[in-house]
Structures are given as structure tokens and as C-alpha cells.
Specification:
Layout: H1 9-15, E1 20-25, E2 33-38, H2 44-50, E3 55-58, H3 60-78, H4 82-98
Antiparallel strand pairs: 1-2, 2-3
Length: 100
């Protein structure tokens, strides 16, 4: 029997198909943080233009709205930028592989 040890399986299921991975940090008395990572580096000028970074950490209750905002911004930008469209496809492929 396989045990799912992912710290937030619903985020993994909802966002790995959009190029994002998640891991937990913080131990003991520290409140846990969920780290979100987009699986491809955006070109600097594109990241600045859409005001997005490929990584952030936050408490679990703040992660879903933030990753949704960033994922949406990247996906919208990728509609007009072929380089970012290619990077989005690579990020999705990498995230799906890692989420297996």
C-alpha cells in the first residue's frame, strides 16, 4: 500500500499540471511553511513585466490564492510570449514528472 506523504496533496494535484511543485519547511515549534516553486526560470524581463517570481513560501492557508495569482499571470503572459510558452510547457512536464 502506497502512503501519500506529500505535505499538501490537493495543491500538488491542482497545480503540478500548471508547472508548480510544493514542499514543506519548518520543524518542531515553528509554524510550517509551504514552499511553492515554478519549475522553469522565467526570463528576467518577463518576470519583471508580470511582477512574478518563480518561488515563494507562505503558511498553507495563504498558498493557494498566491499560487493561483502567479500561475494565472504566467499562463496569460505565455499566450503572447513564445519563449515563456515554451518554458511553461517545460515546467509542466517537469512538475508532472516530479509529482509522480
Amino acid at each position: 500500500m502506497l502512503i501519500d506523504r506529500h505535505p499538501c496533496p490537493s495543491l500538488r494535484d491542482d497545480y503540478s499540471g500548471r508547472g508548480w511543485l510544493f514542499f514543506r519547511s519548518g520543524r518542531g515549534a515553528e509554524p510550517p511553511l509551504i514552499n511553492a516553486v515554478f519549475c522553469a526560470p522565467l526570463p528576467s524581463r518577463c518576470a519583471i513585466a508580470i511582477d512574478v517570481t518563480e518561488y515563494f513560501s507562505a503558511p498553507l492557508h495563504e498558498v493557494r490564492p498566491e499560487v493561483e495569482t502567479r500561475a494565472w499571470a504566467i499562463e496569460q503572459h505565455a499566450r503572447t510570449c513564445t519563449r515563456c510558452a515554451d518554458l511553461l510547457a517545460v515546467a509542466i512536464a517537469h512538475a508532472r514528472l516530479a509529482a509522480r
